[in-house]
């Protein structure tokens, strides 16, 4: 071997030796911290299981990302979670279906759903004995919900109003709505000194309210939608998805594992919920609510089109997507 060839081979080997660690580091150069915003209630149970069992960390290690820090800020309402996601304060948000659809439309697809989190009904409960249906609410009533006009509760109320009063009158009950966190809405409804006479909310709050003999239900969202529907979704940004493919896959895998865990271990999931939330209900009460018909935890989106079609008709969004799969990142097919 002549000296020139020996030099070239030596330089090539040295270059490969130097670049190999750099390539390895580049392959894992994704986020070292993942921030997932959650909200209040049993609808977010899979997120609680993910947090308590450190499932994101587990799947991040499997993906070769090492020890990834995961934080879980608690926010209230779709508007707040969307704002946090847009501002970059979090990498993932959890909200109702309708805030996702609004954000997707306004951002032209920058923000999309990762997967469904839960299918749970929402009840509109009231302490007003004169109110037998939503047609009986008057200007003296006030209805608490997480975010006026934006939250899934607000849009379901509009859908119900359209059915009751005619399509053009979908916003008829909007002036009666008041923005409140679920726990605050529960406390206000049960307080004799509060102006709140109605609360459109989710498990476990709606069941806690019904334990009071003064409370009765006037609306079930499953009746409005014609059957079970996705309530909560996990969403993120297209930029995060592109820059952090393995971290993104780890979060989705963690959510799928959490959903499977709940399906097979209802009591253990109820225990995790109580430990995480320090709720006042008993274990048997929470377990009974998780086991109620119509309560489900699955990553497959359900009845997304029903919300989207109404939001186009009501003017909440201007452009209807060609396929509702456009609203979610590649993965479980939306229906």
Characteristic key phrases:
alpha/beta; 335 residues; 3-stranded antiparallel sheet; D-Maltodextrin-Binding Protein, domain 2; single chain; 14 helices
Q: Overview of this structure, please?
A:
There is one protein chain. This protein is α/β, with parallel strands linked by helices and 335 residues long. It folds into two domains: 33-117 and 229-327, 3-Layer(aba) Sandwich (D-Maltodextrin-Binding Protein, domain 2); 123-225, D-Maltodextrin-Binding Protein, domain 2. The chain is 45% helix and 13% strand. The chain has 14 helices and ten strands. The chain has helices spanning 3-27, 45-52, 55-62, 78-87, 97-106, 152-165, 182-190, 205-210, 221-225, 238-243, 245-264, 266-277, 283-290, 304-314, and strands spanning 33-35, 69-71, 92-96, 111-118, 123-126, 143-145, 177-179, 198-201, 216-220, 232-237. The strands form three sheets. Strands 7-6-8-5-9 form a five-stranded mixed sheet, with helices on both faces. Helix 6 (152-165) links the parallel strand 6 and strand 7 (177-179). Helix 2 (45-52) packs across helix 11 (245-264) and helix 3 (55-62) crosses helix 11 (245-264).
């Amino acid at each position: 071997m002549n000296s020139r060839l020996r030099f070239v081979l030596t330089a090539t080997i040295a270059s490969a030796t130097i670049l190999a660690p750099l390539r390895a580091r580049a392959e894992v150069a994704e986020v070292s911290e993942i921030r997932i915003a959650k909200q209040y209630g049993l609808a977010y149970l899979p997120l609680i299981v993910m947090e308590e069992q450190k499932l994101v960390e587990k799947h991040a290690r499997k993906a070769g990302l090492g020890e990834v820090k995961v934080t879980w800020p608690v926010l209230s309402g779709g508007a707040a979670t969307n704002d946090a996601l847009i501002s970059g304060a979090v990498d993932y948000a959890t909200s109702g279906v309708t805030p996702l659809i609004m954000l997707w439309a306004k951002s032209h697809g920058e923000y999309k759903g990762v997967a469904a989190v839960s299918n749970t009904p929402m009840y509109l409960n009231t302490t007003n004995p004169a109110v037998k249906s939503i047609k009986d609410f008057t200007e003296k009533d006030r209805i608490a919900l997480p975010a006026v006009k934006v939250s899934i509760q607000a849009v379901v109320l509009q859908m119900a109003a359209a059915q009751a009063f005619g399509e053009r009158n979908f916003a008829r009950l909007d002036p009666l709505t008041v923005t409140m966190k679920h726990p605050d809405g529960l406390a206000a409804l049960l307080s004799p000194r509060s102006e709140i006479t109605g609360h459109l909310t989710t498990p476990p709050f709606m069941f806690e309210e019904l334990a009071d003999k003064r409370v009765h239900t006037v609306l079930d969202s499953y009746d409005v939608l014609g059957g079970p529907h996705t309530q909560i979704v996990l969403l993120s940004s297209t930029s995060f998805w592109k820059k952090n493919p393995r971290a993104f896959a780890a979060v989705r895998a963690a959510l799928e594992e959490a959903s499977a865990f709940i399906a097979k271990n209802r009591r253990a999931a109820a225990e995790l919920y109580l430990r995480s939330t320090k709720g006042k209900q008993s274990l048997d009460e929470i377990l009974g609510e998780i086991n109620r018909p119509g309560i489900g935890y699955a990553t497959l989106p359900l009845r997304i089109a029903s919300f989207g079609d109404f939001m186009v008709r009501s003017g909440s969004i201007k452009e209807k997507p060609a396929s509702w799969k456009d609203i979610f990142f590649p993965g479980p097919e939306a229906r």
